[in-house]
Fold each of these.
Amino acid sequence: MSQPLKVLMMGGRRCGKTSALASLFEQAKNGPINNYFTVADRTILETKGIERQESLSNKTLELTNMLETNKDNSNVFLVDQAPTMNSWLYKLHLQIPGKKREMDIEFRDSAGEFFEASGQHARETEEYVRDCDVFVIVIDTPYLMGPYDEATKEICRESIGLGVNRVKDIQDFLTHITDNDGKDAKMVIFVPLKCEKWAKEPGGLNRVTQRVKEVYATHIKNLSAYSKMNITIMPMLTAGNINFVEFHDAYIYHSIEGPKRCCRIDADKIRTEFGEIEPLMPGETVTEDSKAVIAGTSLMRPYCWYQITPGDNSYAPRNCDQLPLHIIRFMLAKLIDAQTNEYKGFFGSILKFLRSVFGTMDIDELRDIIGDMQSKGIIKDKGEGIEIIKRF
Amino acid sequence: MLRYYSYYSVGGYKDLLLGDSASGDESTYFLPMLPVLEERGATDATSQQRAEELRKLPAMRLLTSDDGHGLPSSARYLFSHAGYKLLYRHLEGDKYAIALRDIYPDDKDENGRSIPFLVVIMGDTTADLRTLDTLAAYMASNIVTAERTISSMIGMDYDKNGLRFDLRKFNQWIDTVTKSSKSCTIATINGNITIHASRNQTALLVLPGGIPIKTAIAEQRLNAGTISETVCIDDIVAHDNPGQLVNTVARLATMLKEERSRNKTLKRGLVLAAICGFLIGVMIASCCSH
């Protein structure tokens, strides 16, 4: 397998695809993977017109800055980091230390608009799906759990949750996965994000996982039909202490300084995006936020309001190291599978020898790495909501 | 007939048909709230009334993977990919389009961000070619003015709670430009270039600063041999950007010095003199107007 492993980040607008990718890179470069590989970020940052591809380390910095900025803020507030507007490639390079054994993993991160099945980007996204090996489906957990929790099911109905997470559209896109008549292994990982609130409840992450299995049941059933398909659910906490608190209908406050997002407290008061309660001044108006309409529907998404854990604004990501570990384990298994099929017979042995001399990963080395990772429990296959549904 | 398209962010980027040159409508609207109000209207009279009012407004059309509203699929890369500042090219059949991207709107969004958009002006008959040639030359020579004008004609209308495009004003602007500017010529530091579109050709590619042509070719899936004129935005003698004009003059002076030291021709000196003369004329005119 001389081609890079290709990973596609999928999910609706503002669900956290880029944040998940940033955490993955952070953990790949600084986490337990370093015991086995030298990891380097080999991304070449592109410019498309005026928009410049952002480095993923900046994304992590946005998160840590938000925690720091809201250190003494006990209010609930809106989170809105800069949205991705384009489609970008990021590249991770792995090498076994001291040896010329190396692999690349290429990640495609696209704006949420790319996952609208009837949108202008649909054909392009279908091409990406056909081209990729791993699919990370990022799920906005508040909208996943909203219809399920008693406190929120009125304001966040099932149809809203499905619309925000583009559940049906992603199901359609996944039908374009091609596995070369069963020869190519593929992997799908469902990654619920923004689940800090549920992580703090006993059994909360398991409930999230159960909900994923319910909502994405058709996806899982269809994917299971592929002979070499890995399916995993892996809740992730990219921040650790930014907790979902509540939903509110989406409004815009037209102040003299310009439009601002807010929610209504009552007829005369609003809560600004920073959590401050303000009275409406004469001449100021509040309208529903037309940008909260879910594309292609007659539904409006309520805003999610968050709060920093009282007394603890530390940056405490959890399970973010598992995503790259699972992807790398899959990559190694895929390579073993491909090479095992190639190395049959006399000529297969010669090919194997040549490969070992000229630098691609060797089967025995790969098996040792995987075995070591598993025996030391570095890779989690269960616990904290992690569940492997299918593994080839 | 000319048709106008845009890639504009309204709670996420949307590909929109804004309107056309044959329409008499004053404005067109993209109203994300309309389906919401229509649904509420089934049980709420106020929403029903509001929906009825909004339904009467001339609507923009959302482009989908199945319906491009006249825009051929060959134009897809104008929206989804970059590599150009202004592109004027043949699409297919009798369709030609001018695309101008990375235009910053006057308004900032609710997060204080100014989110860039693009506009595509497409002609669908050969009768539109003369208009498009003139318009492309004008826009390339007056990019700042063109951007400011276009930005002023599209933006959020909070009364209607949606996006509004001032179609009539836009048609009038195009009319004014093409009547007052008969020229299809763009002045650059390397001399004048004349714009004339033809089948299977890219008539004009204006590169953003710092972007090499090979990026544009790769992004837009162009055939290098079919690009008639390529110019970097910094090399255009901009009529409406004094800062850039001064930079261009300075670069030209440096180049002239170098050429003189190699005993080159007088041609660029004439261009420099013309530009200096133009500058002096502008200064005199501005003094006289005070």
Amino acid sequence: MKKSIFWLLPILLLSSCGPSGQDGTSVGGDVSELIFSKFDGNLEKERGAVLHILENDLAKESGYLKELLDGFNEKYAEYGITAVDANLDEYTDLVNSGPYGTGPDVLYQANDSLMKYVPGKHILPIPVDRLECYDQVSQIGWDTFTSDANYNSTFTYGVPVNIQTPLLYYRKDLLPSDWQANWDDNKNNIPDMVETRNSMYQYSKQLKESSGGTKFGFMRAMQDSYFVSGYLFTYGAYIFGNNNKDTKDIGMHKGNAKYGAKFIRDFSAVMDNRCTDLTINATGYSLLANGEMFATTNTPDTTRSYITTFRDVLINPTGQYKMTAEEANKYIDENLVITTLPKMPKNGDVTDPNETEFIDTTMMGGIHGYSISAYTKYPNACLAFLDYATSYELLKKRTETLQLSPAREDLAEVTTPINKEIYNMLENGTIYMMPSIEELALFWPSAQTLFADLATDGLRKDNFRYDTLDKIQAALEKLSKDVYDAIWTLQ
Amino acid sequence: MVQRITNYFTALGKVIKNWFIKLGKNTKSFFVNLPRNTKNFFIGLYQIIKHYLITSQYPVYLSAIVMGLGQVFNKQYIKAALYFLVEVGFILFMVFLGGNYLSGLITLGVNQADPILGIQGDNSIALMLMGLVSVVIIIVFIYLYISNIRDCYRTRNVILNGKKPNTFVQGLKDLLDKNFYKTVLAIPLIGVAVFSVVPIIFMILIAFTNYSSSLEPPTDLIDWAGFESFQTIFGAGNISDTFFKILGWNILWAILTTVINYFIGLGLALLLNSKKLKGKVFFRAFPILAYAIPGFITMLAFKFMFSNGGPINYYLKLFGADTIDFLGIDSTWTARFIGLFVNAWVSTPSIMLLATGILSNLNTDLYEAASIDGASKFRQFYKITLPFVVFSTTPVIISQFISNFNNFGVFYFLRGSIYSSGYFVASDTDLLINWLYRLSIDQQNYNIGGAISILVFIITSIISLLVYVRSPAYRKEDTYR
């Protein structure tokens, strides 16, 4: 219980000494009116407020947070309202800090993190229609932060800021020299291997075989549930039924999920056993940079790490490239490509080189956004901060500085093309929103166990466990049952 | 006849008159003497009470009624005031706080919080904690209450024996002299109570609640759930299967690690103690270096060494061999042996240092005598060295066993991300302490975690006790004295 509740003991001892207990059982009148009466827009009564803003590490390291805070403080200087860095870990749990007065006023976290605060009423419903960004954010974005868990009423508890979904990172300079002749069947000047998984499989197989297992095509940790669950979703699987709210309906075996699981097993065979543990998550940047692998998937927030590591390799005076910083930047611009994921085979067989029908890959993703702590004393100032931080200008700056994908349509249109594609993915449903309920924590371990076993099976030489679709289907049914048991056994 | 009647009434009148005169005189005398008599009455009463109080144990009863009152009659006024203040303080605490806390300990709160509407509810965890603190305060008060009576009784005996009791200042001086052990023990005792006993009892109490991931105090109220957590562990199929599988491995692990670490440590100590070995200081530095590096750094380093992308697999690949998934999902026994090895690496230096110190006290005449009798080196080790070292280190072996039983670090660092098929939220190398962590911290099922903690405590206590009472250190205490 080291990370446990015992560290709270001194705080509890102190906090419990205060007055306790008004009767909180009945809430009369129009709840919506009562709640939104906090947001009366009167900044004068919150004069002198100091807002503690919890942002992610990327925003801090890049200097964006400072820019954001300075801008806000300047704008609201007349009211003496200031916003400061909360100086807390980016994953700070409001449940353990808010009630004890040590939490932030405004939080920037992923939708699953923020929405898990809703049943406990740790974050405030927000009158989002008063925000400038309201009309520009996708309805799916708003829906992600909407819940009817409290007061039998539907409220929006967060403001979407960035869309997070896995993308393909590949190096153009590692394409075969004859790719235009032999790896561009549809002659659209886009390599086949980044268009379809089957071509990527063939290329990966070819690279591994020709290099004696020292070079790889596509590689990533295949036990990482966040990244590989999408292969199952693509073929109809889901985690929880009823829009990820029904924890009794576990659907990891539904539809043709077995094709997605077979994909994991098959693709592992053209990687090596590094795909079965998580160390590759840390070493993946250098594997791509030093050319050991051609492509991988990751989320947009890691783009800076790929660029930095690649640049380090390029400018290394004792390395292969020995470039100047300027040459390296130009080389990276030309050769490090970030694009949407290749399509999956409709027949579910990634090893089939003759498959001609493909479907879009659905991947697990999420939306990072802002929420307001229910423990704040300054709701109006917080709302003003949200309005400022999600305004067109600020989000444009954020998108450019942090290289993230904006949740605002008007920004997705004008920034990089990939942002527009990601926005479209959100709109057309190929981003499977990470469930925003506490029970998700019980999905990861069971899923990780099976995915690791599937990946290991792809590398086994004999004693295969999942060499038929029936065995895979049975394993997926067991996965759904395991998740169900994990949730309901301990309820 | 008339004369006789007249005389009779005259005499009667005189009698009545005299009676009234006497009554008047007596009444006057009564009121005149009333203050003096009253005073005398109370003086007499006081004398009687004083006699009994001073020459008997009656003040002890007064101390039982009001703390410190008996000490007043012992003329220990400062002590009396302190005891009285304790009682007053306790009564005030119970009236204004303790009563609520105790009722909170029973109900664990009735008012649900609503942070959105700014409604502050009951904090179940705080109520439990404060209820627990109240129980501790009550226990401390009972102790002080009894000590107040015992103090009064002892002091009375001193007085009745015609001696002079200690003054308050003398009592304080004694705390730095003949009662110094009390002063020295008080601080650690309070420390242990506050930082060990209260959290342990708190954790035990949690095991009997429904505090799981679905509840988030202080906004949610938790409730007492009796033995439900234990029923879940032993009743729910997949959890009880996992529990017994892990328990079996955990016991085997604790025995193997204790034996391996002990004999490797002893072997190293004997080796480095050998007269034939040159440069002992130099060689002794290596195990100490391994010991000096923080354990988790060593474990992370080994994890990297044995990972699929680590240096061992790199060289295997370089020399044309197949890579090995040392810590992967299929590598149950490989990972377990690596765990034993890593644990030995981290732990043996401390055993080596301990054994080195003990060996330096061993009488070398015994070896000379054994050599003359023709005993082989192994026989000398088996009959002289081993019993001597085992005798001296039995408590250390038990503590090693317990710490190995609860060895959290090795498999947390080596295989923390693995979940094995057939196990409920655990890997096949997890020990109970790792499983406890996954259930209580990762999955936030604090009640199940608390129940497992209690079971671990019971198991390690029983094994340690059994081993200790059967050990030579306990049964043949005087052997080496």
